[in-house]
Amino acid sequence: MPGIPVPDRNGWKQRLGRVLVTGLCLAALGLPQAARAAAPVSPDHPVEQAAMTAMAAAVCAGSYHPENSREIRYLEDYGWTMTPYTLKDGDTEVNFTLARKQGLLRGKNWTVLAFRGSATRDDWKLNMKMKAVPYPEGSNARKNQDGEEKGPAVHEGFLRYARAALSRPLDVDGDGREETLAAYLKEHPQEKMVLTGHSLGGAGATLAGEELVRQGVDKNRIPVITFGAPAVGNRDFARRYGSKIDLLRVVTTLDPVAGALQTVTRSGYQQFGEKKEYALSGKYTDYQHPISYYLDLAVQDYYRQRDQAEKDGLWAPVPLERRKGEGPLAALAVLCLDNGADTRFSPDLGQFLLDEYRGALPRYVVLDYRHTAGSDLPAFQEELRQKARKAGADVLVIAQVERQRLGQTDKWSILLGQEVVGLQPGGVHSVTAGSTRVRFEQGVVQSLLSLWEDQKKELKKALPETRDQEPLWIFLREEGTWDENH
């Protein structure tokens, strides 16, 4: 049997470097906590909120380049239908993506509508229409001695953006009928739609929520999640209308956009809604607004919330093996090296991969999950081989993910290698690897998504029985049991 190139770190790199980079993402916990945990009963539970927030961040990230987005391809691979739209209403152009998964989740059909952030000159023209206009039209508004609007008023450009999106009939569920969102939601009580957006898109999502509620849609059916969004209205608007929508407003510590209008105008803009702040050091990045950071932090927060729920006995873990079913039994080892990288603001990549493999392998036994902040792993390839045989496995799958510094700079890349070894004479043997650079427009999660896409294809070639069960972070699954006594 060919040796497993795990113990010799340099040999592993050299071997992978000779392999054609052809290619195997998200969500997981460490080895002691299994990933297929039960979906919570309460919609307000921190784990459920974190899962919904991570999903929203992924669709927001994909909305910037929906025609060639790793996030869109990833979600489509798990059965989500992703439909991008570009709508024009006069000189206002709106871009958003509808993400929909067929099948009921807790008695509801779920759709995610993600408004794209600023990406074009026209988007910035809308941003610059900062005049606060009365809301709704015809209401009395006046200025005080400081020039601040009195009476509810909202950002003119953001209101145009939201109304342009809501004015166009859409085929939300693929039945061939086009309806406005308000009409569709009122006629389909089993539907629930998450409105989300980053930056300008978050402002559009907020006012779209307000408009839909004004048109008779129950706010509990259209939760709003925004990332780095500016304020949309003045103090009187926040006071009168802020509680009319279910808004979760996600920001980073030093994102300048959330407070921009309060600083540059005299219209009295004010934020509202539930605020969730992700701690992000200015030493890690001096520009904290890109959606890539929000995606990394949202997925990391999901892990933390679920980990805490498991520790508290609120989240039911699953076994570290699944032997029932058809297909070969795979023994799995996931190895992670950080090489001294700053990992405080991104998910644990080893945990990340562990869930992906457990969702892909038809039957599995997790042999090992090793994580080190350093650069070396101990030699234990023979130990893995013996454990795999003892477990009765047909194949051994080893995944190694590593952060690598680029020269002497503070820039990093991520390497993902995979080896599939048949444990019977003449069994399959496949080695693949790839690497990509992490940058502000492609964060840690996005980088790993790109690499996993290729490696998963190779895994399917080696093990045709590979399945596509989505990891829990994507959305709210209804598996297992939830301890309602807590």
From TrEMBL:
Residues 1-37 form the signal peptide. InterPro entries: AB_hydrolase_fold, Fungal_lipase-type, Sec_MonoDiacylglyc_Lipase. CDD domains: Lipase_3. The keyword Signal applies. Gene3D superfamilies: alpha/beta hydrolase. GO terms for biological process: lipid metabolic process. Residues 112-258 form the Fungal lipase-type domain. It holds the Pfam family Lipase_3. Keywords: Signal. SUPFAM superfamilies: alpha/beta-Hydrolases. This is Lipase (Class 3).
